[in-house]
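lol so apparently i was supposed to do this last week
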Amino acid sequence: MRKIEHIGIAVKDLDLSCELYEKLLNTACYKKEEVASEGVNTAFFKTGENKIELLSATNPDSPIAKFLEKKGEGIHHIAFDVEDILAEMERLRGAGFVLLNEQPKKGADNKLVCFLHPKGTNGVLVELCQEIKAK
Ligand code: ZN
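anyway here it is w/ zinc ion bound
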């Protein structure tokens, strides 16, 4: 794993939170994107080298809706940038971590992603992400 790619924050109202984070970080949101397969709307911010992803639910069955119900708003996951997601998934599987998806899936912001079960990572939902390179 190379670096923290972004930190994901679960929010109830994406538009309100976007305004809030624009004020907080003093920078405009650079991308809003729906990931229909995950039932989420996302908004991304850059602060220097770092990124923040805000996530809100698009339907009551969304993992974000369930997270908000259980834990309320707050830090939802930490995403690590990886060069080769398949190799990293293989390595982590071998080391006994539980992957939430067996194959990488298409995430927001032009990434292939895989999540690790928080039960195996001290309660932190970990996301691996690999940039999809233009061919
Ligand atoms: Zn993420």
